Structure formats: structure tokens, C-alpha cells
Structure prediction request, 344 residues.
Amino acid sequence: CPFVAGPMIRDPRLFVGRKAELTTLVHRIEGAQPTSVNVVGERRIGKSSLLYHFYQTWAQRVQPPHALVVAYLSLQEAQAQSEPALYRAMFSRLTQQMGAHHADLHHALQSFPPDRAGFDTAMRHCRRAGLLPVFCLDEFEALLKYPLRFDDGFYDAWRALMDECALMLIVASKSPLGVYRRRHRLTSSFFNVGHTLVLRELTETEADDLVRLPASTVPGAPAALSLREQRLARRWGGRHPFRLQLAADALWQARQAGRDEAWAHARFAEQASSLPRRRWRGLRAVFWQGPVALGRLAGRVGGVVDEFGNWLIGVAILIVIALVLLGLISGEQVLAVLRRWLGG
Prediction:
């Protein structure tokens, strides 16, 4: 079965689409100045698979490949729960990816201590040798669980390396890094990362290619699903990569087990229930994100910066607008109140 529903896609032959996103990553590396990227997306949208696929295929995408080295690291792993352990893991992944062009650097990196100063010196040493270290850091939220271990000084050190083009990061997170800075009351400019890449659903063509696996990626290979099954998978899964994988997998499993389409749909529906329902996302946009946005607009005028305060102000604005539209209060009454608040 070529469909991977849940785990990160590790076989490059099973990775479909994301050409625009991969091209963006290449452009950020090959530009006049390498720019770090924050890959943002909801759960199960394919952030980990994108980072891992780029790590697997960067040498075929970036020119010249010997001028950089790309390493992948999930920050959820146990060895990334303290600063020294994180540096050891990063050193290890970096040296594993160094080819024959940088054999001398491979040995040199083993002499640097796994601390903040040692990591800083090691990255600058690589850059002076003509090599740009690029780390694909998955599950960034894992670092925020340990605020005493990873403080503003830690992030400032990384930002200094990024500013001097001695380090490039491709960081995957559910929300933009700026959100975590406010939420965790951090001040480091690291969280103003150079470029944010929002990962959304697949295009229509990419979704079609996914349900045609492996024919769409392996020349001469037949599709695992029949044309009818492909249409059903597209109908059930839409363009969401996880839902498509679930739908295609359920149809493939049904055929193998001699089950009918109703069994496949029931299996798909049960497993797809783990995703946030779209209607709740819509309600959240109306009753939370909308008021917050209005509150932020008012906050720019009145100096209000607290998120909950922004929400309250936004709700108040929506209530006043609704009362005016319903005719319960007049525009003149609203203006009179505003004049009193503004001192005439």
C-alpha cells in the first residue's frame, strides 16, 4: 500500500506535490543572503513530511550542493530536551551529512564543546570554510516546554548566527513564531524570522497525483487504486493530504480484505474524526479570530496590547454594530457616547 496515513513520509517515492513550497525553500537558500524560514501549518497538513523530503532531496535542488549541508532534527526527540543535548544532536546530524568535500570539517566539529559558545564557534568555523549549515527543525513547540533551559539568550545566540549568514534554519510549527513569543513572554528577535511559509491543502493536481500513487511518482508503475476508487478518495478526502491518505488507504484495505465501499467509508470516517472539524474552525474564526482582529485594530489606536483585552474590545464593537443594524440604537447615540469618551 503506497498510502501513508499518519506517520511522516520517509520514502521519497511516496511524496507528492508541494513543488511551490520546495521551490520557495530553494530560493531562500540560494538568494543573495540566506533567509531562514518558518513553515507554519495546522496539525496533519504535512509539515514534517515537507521538511524531511527537502532534507532528503536538497542536493538535487540547490546549486552548488557542496556549498551547504542540510540536516533534519525533530525537537520532540529526547536528546533535544536540554541545551547541551540539543547541540550534541545537531553536531551529530551535521557530521552525518558531510560528504567527502568536507572531511576536514567533520573532524574539526568533534572538537567543539556542546555548549552555546562551542556551537557558535563551530557554525562560524563552517561558514569560514565555505559551508552553510542548514537545519530543518521539526516540532519547534518542544523547545518551549523548557523555558528555563531555552531562554532569550539561547534564541539571541541563534539569531546572531542567522544575521551573519553562519546558520540557516527551516523551522516547522503550528503557529507563526511571533505567536509563541507573545504567548511565552519572550523578547528575542529570533522570533521575527525572515520568511513565513504557510502550508495549506494540496492543489487539485497534487491531490489527483496522491490518489494515483505510485503511478504518479514511479515511471511505469500502475496505480494502486482503480479509477472509481480514486474518485471516491478525492470525494471523501478533498484536498487535505491526511484525509486523502486515509481515504485512499481505507479503499485499498477494503479491496484487499474483500470488503465493500461502505466498509471503507466507515473506516475512513472513524479515523478522520481525529482532525479538527471544519465547522468549529469556522465558528472560531467568527467568535474568536474576528473579534481579536478588530481588537488589535483598536489596540493600535489606543495602545491596547493584551490579547484578551483585544478580544473584549472586538466583541464590544461587534455588539454595537449588531445593535445599530437591528435598529435598537441609532448612529447618533453611538456618536454621542464616543464624544463623551473622547472629551467632547
